[in-house]
UniProtKB/TrEMBL annotation:
<comment type="function">
    <text>DNA-dependent RNA polymerase catalyzes the transcription of DNA into RNA using the four ribonucleoside triphosphates as substrates. Specific core component of RNA polymerase III which synthesizes small RNAs, such as 5S rRNA and tRNAs.</text>
</comment>
<dbReference type="GO" id="GO:0005666">
    <property type="term" value="C:RNA polymerase III complex"/>
</dbReference>
<dbReference type="InterPro" id="IPR039748">
    <property type="entry name" value="RPC3"/>
</dbReference>
<comment type="similarity">
    <text>Belongs to the eukaryotic RPC3/POLR3C RNA polymerase subunit family.</text>
</comment>
<dbReference type="Pfam" id="PF22536">
    <property type="entry name" value="WHD_POLR3C"/>
</dbReference>
<dbReference type="InterPro" id="IPR008806">
    <property type="entry name" value="RNA_pol_III_Rpc82_C"/>
</dbReference>
<keyword id="KW-0804">Transcription</keyword>
<keyword id="KW-0240">DNA-directed RNA polymerase</keyword>
<feature type="compositionally biased region" description="Basic and acidic residues">
    <location>
        <begin position="194"/>
        <end position="211"/>
    </location>
</feature>
<dbReference type="InterPro" id="IPR036388">
    <property type="entry name" value="WH-like_DNA-bd_sf"/>
</dbReference>
<dbReference type="Pfam" id="PF05645">
    <property type="entry name" value="RNA_pol_Rpc82"/>
</dbReference>
<dbReference type="InterPro" id="IPR055207">
    <property type="entry name" value="POLR3C_WHD"/>
</dbReference>
<dbReference type="InterPro" id="IPR013197">
    <property type="entry name" value="RNA_pol_III_RPC82-rel_HTH"/>
</dbReference>
<feature type="region of interest" description="Disordered">
    <location>
        <begin position="181"/>
        <end position="212"/>
    </location>
</feature>
<feature type="domain" description="DNA-directed RNA polymerase III subunit RPC3 winged-helix">
    <location>
        <begin position="336"/>
        <end position="393"/>
    </location>
</feature>
<comment type="subunit">
    <text>Component of the RNA polymerase III (Pol III) complex consisting of 17 subunits.</text>
</comment>
<dbReference type="GO" id="GO:0003697">
    <property type="term" value="F:single-stranded DNA binding"/>
</dbReference>
Length: 395
């Protein structure tokens, strides 16, 4: 990580958690894994403040802990993650996405979990129901069951997941991470009687809420950032299809992505194979296109140079996949080409596009293939070289 990244992380930690947490977090980012005693000594911070700061960092996923480098029996070491701290910059986007997909209730659920780091389902439901009730007109209140429904949908689509038990932290998988507990929640949200509740009153209410048994004690939930990033990736592909082809094509791709959203990992090269019949049955009702028309659209998507959709085999009409990695690579390439064209003109973009496709060319070959006079081609190549957009390779 660069010094600029560490500085940005420090500013984010200070803004959200205060100076002491910022001091501890920045020290861990610079020094790497360290035990409690070393952190306290090297930051000149009292041990109790170090413990509290580490608790904050761990709760918000910015820090992990594990056995020391000397193996079992050595002091526990703490490691901060620059990437996880920088996620704070995307919090507004995560919250807005939840609002877009699941309305105000989904928005507040994700906002509360992000603010607290992790929460039990029952506490989240009660807190969100109270907030929604406070914004309703007098005499109305939010049912717990409605918030439970939105929470369940966020878990079903993997936007929320269980925090792994402490013994399993750092392991590859948690088989129960999307298993909803049986929660006994009945009632409605409560309106705050005054807007100037003291801090002691709020703490008392929270302690009372925590002490009420709802059947999910010790089961905490966190935001699944990878799932949100996967959703952003899918939206970029859908928007590109709509821009390159048309709205119906983008809706077909959206349907394919939605059918595979919880079965496709973030690193997968393509979605699970789907037959044309499966896609046809899953299209939204308002898209009343016939099966032959769908086949034509699928063929158009398969033949498009951007390679959004791929086809495997012809038996039974063939199976179709969304080429995730190839589509994103082509999108990145198109973005680079547009940046070069905007900054250096269409002829430079032509040279850049040519080098992307051919990989390696001599200057004379660039002049011939791009059909640009020698002097102009030389000047453009030099400009692209000075901007680090192309490289010169020796024999």
């Amino acid at each position: 990580m660069t010094a600029q990244e560490v500085r940005l992380c420090g500013l984010l930690l200070q803004e959200h958690f205060g100076e002491v947490v910022e001091r501890i977090g920045t020290h861990l980012l610079r020094a790497g894994a360290q035990n409690l005693r070393n952190i306290a000594n090297e930051t000149n911070t009292p041990l109790d403040l170090v413990k509290k700061s580490l608790c904050v960092l761990v709760q918000h996923g910015a820090c992990e802990f594990g056995s020391g480098r000397r193996g079992p029996g050595s002091p526990v070491e703490y490691r901060a993650s620059c990437e996880r701290v920088l996620r704070v910059l995307r919090y507004p986007r995560y919250i807005y996405t939840a609002k877009t997909l699941y309305g105000d209730t989904g928005e507040l659920i994700v906002e509360e979990v992000l603010q607290r780091g992790h929460m039990t389902m029952s506490n989240t439901v009660k807190t969100v129901a109270d907030r929604l009730t406070h914004n309703m007109e007098e005499g109305r209140s939010m049912e717990y069951s409605e918030v439970v429904s939105a929470f369940s949908k966020l878990v079903e689509t993997h936007f929320l997941q269980r925090c792994p038990p402490v013994a399993e932290m750092g392991t590859a998988s948690n088989p129960d991470c999307y298993k909803l507990p049986h929660v006994t929640l009945t009632g409605r949200g409560k309106r705050r009687r005054s807007s100037d509740d003291s801090e002691e009153q709020r703490r008392g209410k929270k302690a009372k809420m925590d002490s009420e048994s709802c059947g999910d004690e010790g089961i905490y939930w966190q935001v699944n950032f990878e799932r949100f990033h996967q959703h952003f990736r899918d939206q970029a592909i859908i928007s590109a299809v709509a821009s390159k082809l048309d709205q119906t094509s983008s809706e077909i791709v959206r349907t394919m992505l939605r059918m595979s959203e919880v079965t496709t990992t973030q690193t997968a090269a393509y979605t699970q194979p789907l037959s044309a019949n499966e896609i046809f049955r899953s299209l939204p009702p308002n898209y009343s296109i016939s099966r032959p028309i769908l086949d034509q659209y699928l063929s158009l998507l398969v033949d498009d140079p951007m390679e959004f959709v791929g086809k495997s085999g012809d038996s039974g009409g063939g199976m179709y996949v969304v080429n995730l990695q190839r589509a994103l690579a082509n999108l990145a390439r198109a973005t680079l080409e547009s940046v070069v064209q905007e900054r250096f003109g269409s002829r430079s973009a032509r040279i850049f596009r040519l080098l992307l496709r051919k990989r390696h060319l001599e200057q004379k070959q660039v002049e011939d293939f791009a059909m640009i006079p020698a002097k102009e081609a030389k000047d453009m190549l030099y400009t692209l070289l000075s901007e680090n957009l192309v490289q010169l390779q020796g024999c």
